[in-house]
Amino acid sequence: MNSFLKSGLVIYGKFDFGNFFKGLRNDSHYYIILNHSPDNDDLIVLVVGTSQVDKYTSRLEKGILEECDFHYIYREDPSHNNIFDKDTIINTSQAFILDKKQAIEADKKGMINNEILKEIKDKVRKNKTIERKYKKMI
């Protein structure tokens, strides 16, 4: 079954990732699909985007986060295909796992530039908090 899910596809929606991430289910968020071959996987590996840029840069300045924990996307940069309506931080310190059916049904916003997708995946692969089995899927 071809689901039209691709690595680098940005989806938008509210998803329930369990109690640990209950703050995410209150509002819709942008997520980027990282799976190398999402049509062949039952689970979809995602990273989340947020427009709370000041929060992340403040954490970076305080030493709470490192640069490898996020990727900054400038909304005005034409290489981002104008998917995001605000400057956006992609959190590469956490991966979210979604059932494929939910990803198929999500609002699809467009594709991330391949160069940026590679940078995001590299940061996720280097992150020590993300399980190896999910890193293998990307």
CATH architecture: Roll
Shape: globular
Mean pLDDT across all residues, rounded?
Answer: 83
CATH class: Mainly Beta
The ordered string of helix (H) and strand (E) elements is: EEEHEEHEHH
Overview of the structural elements:
This protein has 138 residues and is α+β, with helices and mostly antiparallel strands. It has one domain: Roll (SH3 type barrels). Helix content is 23%, strand content 28%. It contains 4 helices and 6 strands, in the order E-E-E-H-E-E-H-E-H-H. The protein has a 6-stranded antiparallel β-sheet with strand order 4-5-3-2-1-6. It is globular and about 40 Å long. The protein starts with 8 loop residues before the first strand and ends with a helix.
Secondary structure elements and pairings:
Elements: E1 9-13, E2 29-33, E3 43-50, H1 53-61, E4 70-73, E5 88-99, H2 100-105, E6 107-111, H3 114-126, H4 132-135
Antiparallel strand pairs: 1-2, 1-6, 2-3, 3-5, 4-5
Keywords:
alpha+beta, globular, 138 residues, 4 helices, SH3 type barrels, 23% helix, 28% strand
What is this entry, summarized?
The chain is 23% helix and 28% strand. With 138 residues, it is an alpha+beta fold.
